[in-house]
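Researcher: Quick one. two chains, 507 residues in total.
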Amino acid sequence: MERIKRIILWAGLALIVALIVLSVYSAFIGAERAKEFFNSIPLQIFWSILLLISIVAVIMSPSLLKNTPAAMIHFGIILILTGSIWSSETGHKVQRFICGNNKYPAGRMLVEKGKKQDEMVLDNYTTTVELPFHIGLKDFNIEYYDSGMVKEYISDVGVIQEDEIVAEKKIEVNHPLHFGGYFIYQYDYGEDNGLYTVLKITSDSGLGLIFGGYAFLCIGVFWQLWFKKRLPRWPAASSQWRRANGS
Amino acid sequence: MEVKYSIQGLLIYLTIAGYVLALAMRIFGKRKIAQAVFGFGFVVAVASLVYRRINVGHFPLQNMFELFLVMGAGVYLISLICRKLMRIDQVAADLLIGIIVLFPAGFIFDAAPKQLPPALQSVFFIPHVAAYLLAYILMFKAAIAAAGVFIVKERNRICFERDTYQLISAGFPLLTLGLILGSIWAQMAWADFWGFDPKEQWSLATWLIFAGYFHFRSMFKDKYPQANSIWAISGFSAIVITLLWVNLSRIFSGLHNYAV
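Model:
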């Protein structure tokens, strides 16, 4: 048993070190290539192994499970990993295969003022897909500061399903519309034959798991490190040192 | 490097002068006077923040100048909390941190007021940045305590090792909170909970190094104080890179670059 515990501890440390190396490496290659790198097949295998080992390690460590906040931290990490995999492009393919839901991970939609649109271009720029709803643009506005700097981009939109408006919102940066399993964001705008807005549309798959994991992780970390008496109150180390050195 | 001939500049230089004087008093063993002068420096630092707040019309956490200004004031509060609640007395180190963070605010970073772009107008703006700044100050203190392990005689190492552990334990929850709030904010503003931006990757590396520290320390306790210290100092180095290098260098372009 002691042997198994040691193996788990060393494996955990090794995985953390591996992740540190991967994060630092990816900081040097720029965001786009980093995203590709972390979603590449070898890394997909790495994430799956990481998730599997985390689950096994937590189940096999009775001392961890007895410590509620520590168990919460590790459970949170497992939720975050699961949610991240579920929300990835491959995760969406798996969802289509298992649940049969036809959701797309992310894309962009151009809507002209006074018109409606249900087609979006996926993030690979080559595929156009149809969403199960239309988005109509009632109005698009830009607010400015007195200095002339942009204060806010605002798309006033309505979601239309079977010729009925089912949701309405003034979409601003930081205030997306959540509808039908998608988040709909203000992304860009322009003027051609009339004003148009570009909306970024991303699937919300896995986000519940991720944010739930964040809650567990956060509560667990504060509980464990701030609110738990983990050690007897030792005499203040630095004052102890001063006494020892007679100053 | 340029001198700021303004009320803002004057307030910063007055704070620095106060901290330097307090440090000198502390070194000469005049602890009470040092504490009073430290308090005076803090009051001036707060005045400088209030002035900035009125000047720019939003809480000053937008760019490097404002971040370092806030850290210069925050270091006093952290120092107070550490002394009263955790009984870790590191006032000389705290003053040194105060001087180190206020120097670039006074002489290097551009203080031109800027309005908030749409992405920064969010409820996450202040808590995300504030949690990180407080964590950074605590980790700075931890790194100083960790460096102490290498300097002092062997019988005293354990004291500094424990201080390091206490300080990292205080800072890590805030580091976690900053990271999580940043991720939720990114989902709201940038349409993705993780953007693989260089600054994000460094902040993840930082968090993982401290997570590694806790795993390593739970395995060996204080058996290898120097090894524990290396984890702590590496973590703080990663913080410096996250905070400065990514912003200041032109090597990596990324989403966080408006913060320069």
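Residues 48 and 155 of chain B are 43 Å apart (CA to CA).
Researcher: Thanks, that's what I needed.
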